[in-house]
Write a structure and sequence with these properties.
Elements (H helix, E strand, L loop, with lengths): L13 H8 L4 H13 L1 H19 L7 H45 L5 H29 L10
C-alpha cells in the first residue's frame, strides 16, 4: 500500500493481515512496527492473526478412501451417459412431435369435411399441450438451478 504518515488501525486494518503474511514493503512494515511498539491492542490483534495463521496453516484435508474415488468416477460416467441419453431422447421426441404436428395440421387444414369447431378444438388442444410442455420445462430448469437440497446426501 505504501502509505505515508502514521499507521491508523481503523482505516488500515487489512494491512495487519498482510503484515502477518509478510506481503508488505519495507515502508509499510516500518509504519506498522512503529505502531505496534506503542499500541497494546494492535499487538494483541497481530498475535491473534499469527495464531489463526498457524492453526489454518496446519489444517489438511482428509484423503478419502479408494472406494469413494471408484464410486465418484463410476457415478460420473453414469450421469454423463444418462444425460446424453435424455438429450438424444428429447431431440427425437421434438423432431417426431413436430413432424406429427405438421402432418396433423396439414390433414386438418386440407380437408373440408370437418366442421370449423372441430378444427379449432384440435388446434387449441395441440397449442395447449405445447404451452404446458414449455411451461413444465421452463419451471424444471428454473428450479434445478435454485434447489437448496441438491447437494444433500442421505
Amino acid at each position: 500500500m505504501n502509505s505515508t504518515g502514521p499507521f491508523d488501525p481503523r482505516k488500515e486494518a487489512p494491512l495487519l493481515s498482510a503484515y502477518v503474511d509478510g506481503e508488505l514493503d519495507a515502508s509499510d512494515v516500518a509504519r506498522i512496527e512503529a505502531h505496534l511498539a506503542e499500541d497494546e491492542q494492535t499487538r494483541r490483534e497481530v498475535e491473534q492473526l499469527r495464531r489463526l495463521k498457524a492453526v489454518t496453516g496446519s489444517l489438511r484435508l482428509k484423503e478419502p478412501p479408494p472406494e469413494v474415488w471408484e464410486d465418484f468416477w463410476s457415478s460420473g460416467w453414469n450421469r454423463s451417459e444418462r444425460t446424453l441419453g435424455w438429450v438424444l431422447f428429447g431431440l427425437a421426441v421434438l423432431v417426431l412431435g413436430g413432424w406429427g404436428a405438421t402432418l396433423t395440421l396439414q390433414a386438418l387444414l386440407g380437408t373440408d369435411d370437418l366442421p370449423l369447431i372441430i378444427k379449432g378444438a384440435v388446434l387449441g388442444g395441440m397449442l395447449g399441450v405445447a404451452v404446458l410442455l414449455v411451461s413444465v420445462l421452463r419451471e424444471r430448469m428454473h428450479k434445478r438451478g435454485r434447489t437448496r437440497y441438491k447437494d444433500v446426501v442421505r
